[in-house]
Amino acid sequence: MEIKRGIPVSPGVAIGSALVLDTELFRIPHRSIEDHSVEEEVARLREALAAAAAEARQHQQAISEKLGRQYGAIFGAHALMIEDATLAGEIEGLIREQGHAAEYAVSRVMRRHAKALESLNQGNFAGRASDLFDMEKRILRKLLGHRREQIQHLTQPVIVLAHDLTPSETAALDPTKVFAFATEAGGRASHTAIMAGALEIPAVVGLGRFVIDVSGGDQVIVDGNRGVLILNPDEETLERYERTRSSFRTFETQLGELRDLPAETRDGVRIPLLGNIEFPQEAVHCTERGADGVGLYRTEFLYLGKQTDPTESEHLDAYLTVLRALGTKPVVIRTLDLGADKFSISSEPVAEERNPFLGLRSVRLCLRNLTLFKTQMRAILRASAFGDVRIMFPMVSTLLELRQCKMILAEVKEDLEEEGIAFNRKLPVGTMIEVPAAAVMAEFLAREVNFFSIGTNDLIQYTLAADRTNEAVASLYSAGDPAVIRLIEQVIKAAAKYNIGVNVCGEMSGEPIYTMLLLGLGLRQLSVTPHNIPEIKKIIRSVSIPESVQIAQEVLLMETARDVNNYLREQTRRILPEVVS
């Protein structure tokens, strides 16, 4: 048994069979064979080894003729290793003594040797590990043929393990077949992490290197509450996690009873709780958990798997799906936030950027592609004729950018007027505050819009210069950093001065330990992943505003994120120990 610790990004506990991506690309059966089938399984192995060695020698000849004998020799070495009697004996031993299927036995032996090579910390030896992975794939191809399962078309439940998953790959996961995922890379507020919350499957990221330690078919546990991945758990650990999973479900059931109760503090202050969604169908998740509307509708999913930009009709259909599910409740639609760790625009390929988080992304990109921008604005305005729709611009850094967005919106309104198309002429306009420059200029921006929404994911990373997708700087990326908290306080005060609404829609708003702090700073509206609504509602209903103000005042005196987070964790434990333990 091995325990890996990373960053929890989506709660829950999952126990199941591993599917390792990026290295094996095979669905390796972890099955036991009957005693009478052992010789047949050994024969399968020997046949596969012989075929894999022959294939390696064919590659040796072809590469030698094309590039030279020294390059072909690499594949000759592969063939010799595959034919090595000691290697075959090790694999056969797992088949004969432990009853493993040939595929699983191959993967276990090859990975054990690869890990041993990597542990030598010498480049010439460590590099040989990739040769072993290559041989593993070659042998598995002979054993399994072309019987591979695409991640989108799994036939059996799995837990996906990978170095990293892109937002598109994550969005393609089927929650009925993928019980959880864990990755070596990634950060707490990466778009991949956000997608995990949207799919409501347990996930842990930023675990560091572990893929080499696991074979497809191994039993693993993903603990999305504590940020733990357990490889090959022992019986005692399995039993303990089965109990944990059961108690977590009981806890969720109890929270579900709050659905029809208002998010109201003990002293009677109503705090609208809205949902953050990625896909139109998530609107139903919001209503199921008693949300007061949608505070952040991310629309980048429209680019998922697309070779062309979405049309106005495709935009409109998606928005109307959400409106039909929400009825009269408000829906805040964020204009496209493309680039960086998210989906990319297809109609105008952008050259690779050295630092995409500081480059042509989000509203900057839209202002460069007015056709794209206006198409979405037309759809949002048309949708506003059918419900309480609001528009919000992301990643605004300057007053000029915001004014340009508003000017283009006015032009689109004129076009719709001329065409006789209905829309809400008083459509509320908001801007996200997720760049320190915008937070500093909040008083000036407040004069230009109807509401603010604080996007803490980007605000934290830009304030602390810590890439939110980089596990190497995960310790720096903290919503509890005093600098971040002071910027949030500044934005809230600016909104109050000009009497406009202000919301927090970043992942910080869905983390229970920050709920009382945000209330104490003056927030009277929160927007969170639907799955987190019951927890946040429970905390809101358990505290008073004066109590929260006292907590915020204590926090504003603190100097480090560690002090802030420890203090808030203790305060939250008093109210909801289940989510802090």
Description:
The protein is an alpha/beta fold. Helix content is 47%, strand content 13%. It has 22 helices and 16 strands. Strands 1-8-7-3-4-5-6-2 form an eight-stranded mixed β-sheet. The protein is globular and about 80 Å long. The model has no long low-confidence stretch (mean pLDDT 86).
Number of contiguous helices: 22
Specify the structural class. alpha/beta
Strand-residue proportion: 5-15%
The rounded distance between the terminal residues' Cα atoms is 23 Å
Adjacency order of strands in the biggest sheet: 1-8-7-3-4-5-6-2
Rg from Cα:
27 Å
Biggest sheet architecture: 8 strands, mixed
Overall strand count:
16
Shape: globular
User: What percentage of residues falls in helices of 4 or more residues?
Assistant: 40-55%
Average pLDDT score? 86
| Low-pLDDT runs | none
Précis, in short:
The protein is α/β, with parallel strands linked by helices. The chain has helices spanning 38-67, 69-82, 85-98, 102-118, 123-126, 128-144, 167-171, 191-199, 235-256, 282-288, 312-326, 362-368, 370-383, 399-419, 436-440, 442-446, 456-464, 482-497, 515-521, 533-540, 545-555, 561-575, and strands spanning 2-5, 7-10, 13-20, 158-162, 178-183, 203-205, 219-223, 228-231, 273-277, 294-297, 331-334, 389-393, 429-433, 451-454, 501-504, 526-528.
